[in-house]
Amino acid sequence: VSDFTTINVSLFPNPTTHNINIQSDKQITDIAIYNTLGQVVKNASPQATNFSVETSNLNTGVYFVTLKANSTSKTIKFIKQ
Length: 81
Known about the structure:
The chain is mainly beta and 81 residues long. Helices cover 0% and strands 60% of the residues. The protein has strands spanning 9-12, 19-28, 30-34, 40-44, 48-54, 61-69, 72-80.
């Protein structure tokens, strides 16, 4: 078994109404937000470890954000109120 590395990420507030704040130990190169149907509803390329993503234009519901840093990725669920 090869070594397995992950991204340590904090996403807050969850649930959210306007913005989600993301803090990571690695520089995030790309993010994609998906709805529960698997459709991409937002993309961004922050190139940062601490940043905010506007979610006020999203409908109320459950979403998944996939964060990519080099060759690793992590998916986190959040709720939009």
